[in-house]
Amino acid sequence: MKRNRFTSRKRISADATELSRLAIGLAESGSKLEDLFWQNRLGELVDKLFHDGAEDDFTGSLDRLFDTHAMAHDDLADTIEAHAESCVLSHLGQEFDILLFAAPLLAWSRFSIPTVAIPKSTLQTLKVHLGAHVFAAGARLALADYLYSPDQLPHSFVDTWQLMQQLGIAAMAGSDISIDASSMPETNRFLSDTRYLVGALAVRRGQPLFRWNEADKSTRESSLREWLKQGGPCFEALLTGCAYEPLLADAYHAACRAADSASRPYSLNASVAFLQATLGQPAESLRAVIGGFHDKRLEEYRIGFGPKDSDVVFHGVVWPLLGIEDETTDVAGEIETALRKSGLRDVVALDQQFPYEFCDDCGAPLYPNIDGDTVHAEMPEQNNAPSQTLH
């Protein structure tokens, strides 16, 4: 999940200043023992600020460190994320490790991809398969009864922490939580998008969390195979009219980042499949043009799809940069490889730097064509055509 950058320059609080000091100490530590010293004190302050709902202190400190100390910024962000998605809770005199998790699904459809409440029977079946194939024996699970879109996930560290606490308490009690869909923000409509099953697990303090933590030598790969085979069909009734691909459940932030990465090539495959079905033409008849779009630096790549014998663009995909990707990484090569695997033969990567611009009238991204111009993606006249913006 891409970390937000906050650009406020107002004076930060004493707690935010202390967060920065502790994070710098951790970043500059020279031993494991000193690491533990800083980690303990940083974790104590982060926990206190979560209980206080002090989101501004987190963002203020991260903003300051982003410009002044990159390693401390990353250490602080990792600590905040870890404490937002996990904690220790007591239940009936026993301590339990709590972990917020997400099980993403990549999906595409010529129609709307649902965000939908999950029936109780389906919820119970999903818990059985998660317990059998993904999580450690004896783990207690709680699920939210809603299939989230990216727009509907918690928007702040504090919101994430509050959801973790609510689901963690439910997991220890052997129940699930019901989500009020009326309070959810509207979901943007895309041809290709991600949906999230969100829950929490509770295990006795220090016990394994996942199947691959146990001594029977299960692996992530074997867990994913069984999850696809057994858990995947459970989503069919929830994603009517969609092609979909479940990903492996994991700790919340790790799962979201994995989904962000996997959704990029998936959206290219979805585009090619959609264009073939809609136009009635094989992939060999299409051309994809790749361009890098810059503001002060490279922000993202955009891919324009159109017929190989014309300069028009029928469809567009935005490929955002993630993590440490920048001008020095061969992202364009990765995009080209993914396109060729999807069946395209005519793939052109343009060397020019495109301005990071959007349509003045509608705000949609503009995509590169074979002539090096940026244009709207516009399908030929179709009935009930979906949005032409993908992500």
Structural overview:
Helix 1 packs across helix 3 (55-68), helix 5 (120-133) packs antiparallel against helix 7 and helix 8 (252-279) crosses helix 9 (331-341). Strands 1, 2, 3, 4, 5 and 6 form a six-stranded antiparallel beta sheet that branches. Strands 10-7-8-9-13 form a five-stranded mixed beta sheet, covered by helices on one side. Strands 11-12 form a two-stranded antiparallel sheet. The chain has helices at residues 14-27, 32-52, 55-68, 70-85, 120-133, 157-173, 220-231, 252-279, 331-341; strands at residues 86-91, 94-108, 140-148, 192-204, 243-246, 250-251, 286-294, 298-307, 315-320, 346-355, 367-368, 374-375, 389-390. It is an alpha+beta fold and 391 residues long. It has three domains: 14-85; 92-260, no CATH class; 281-376, no CATH class.
Question: Briefly, what is this?
Answer:
The protein has 391 residues and is α+β, with helices and mostly antiparallel strands. Helix content is 38%, strand content 23%. It has three domains: 14-85; 92-260, no CATH class; 281-376, no CATH class.
**Number of H- or I-type helical stretches:** 9
- Note the overall shape: globular
Low-confidence stretches: 1-9, 384-391
Distance between the amino and carboxyl termini: 14 Å
| Number of separate domains | 3
Specify the structural class: alpha+beta
For the residues shown, what is the average pLDDT? Answer: 93
Report the order of strands and helices: HHHHEEHEHEHEEHEEEHEEEE
Question: Biggest sheet, open or closed, and with what strands and sense?
Answer: 6 strands, antiparallel
Number of strands: 13
